[in-house]
Amino acid sequence: MSAEPVMNLLQIMEFLPHRYPFLLVDRVVELTPGKTIRAYKNVSFNEEFFQGHFPGLPVMPGVLITEAMAQAGGVMILAAFTPEEREGKIFLFAGMDKVRFRKPVYPGDRLDLHCEILGHKLRLWKMAAKAYVDGQLAAEAEISAGMADRRDI
């Protein structure tokens, strides 16, 4: 992956409504809007969830790994729209299939997030998502998500 980010944290925050402690994408390093993304999350021992998951054996919860993949996918899809088209919109989970956790994620790991579009119909997208640590597959899923008007939810 390149050293120069395509998007830094402040730019990612323009696409996602999430904020600390729930913003789970730190950098985007490759992006083809609406098609593919490569991003990462630096997993720190200071993450709040490590206080209870699990004391003495800190492991990143699988649901948060899945959320990180979904957030990266949201950036990928929303980047295909103009700021005017994104105005007043929010991107929401619609489903998860074929979710598998292959390797634990620990403090100090860099969680590399890869997503690609599998299909799109109206305001619903399906993507293949994978998370890696040191080149080894940690998790994978097919994630469905849709765009909605904020005022309608």
Distance between the termini: 37 Å
Average residue-wise pLDDT: 95
Radius of gyration: 15 Å
Strand content: 35-45%
Order of helices and strands: HEEHHEEEE
Number of E-type strands: 6
Proportion in helices: 10-25%
Name the poorly predicted regions: none
Largest sheet: number of strands, sense, barrel closure: 6 strands, antiparallel
- In spatial order, strands of the major sheet run 1-2-4-5-6-3
Total helical elements: 3
SS-based class:
alpha+beta
Shape: globular
Question: Short summary of the structure?
Answer:
It contains 3 helices and 6 strands; from the N terminus they run H-E-E-H-H-E-E-E-E.
List keywords for this structure.
153 residues; alpha+beta; 3 helices; globular
Description:
- The chain has helices at 9-12, 62-78, 83-86; strands at 27-32, 36-42, 89-101, 110-121, 124-133, 136-149.
- The longest helix has 17 residues, at 62-78.
- The mean pLDDT is 95.
- It starts with 8 loop residues before the first helix and ends with a strand.
- The radius of gyration is 15 Å and the shape is globular.
- The protein has a six-stranded antiparallel beta sheet with strand order 1-2-4-5-6-3, covered by helices on one side.
- It contains three helices and six strands.
- A hairpin with a 2-residue loop joins strand 4 (110-121) and strand 5.
- With 153 residues, it is an alpha+beta fold.
Blueprint of the fold:
Layout: H1 9-12, E1 27-32, E2 36-42, H2 62-78, H3 83-86, E3 89-101, E4 110-121, E5 124-133, E6 136-149
Antiparallel strand pairs: 1-2, 2-4, 3-6, 4-5, 5-6
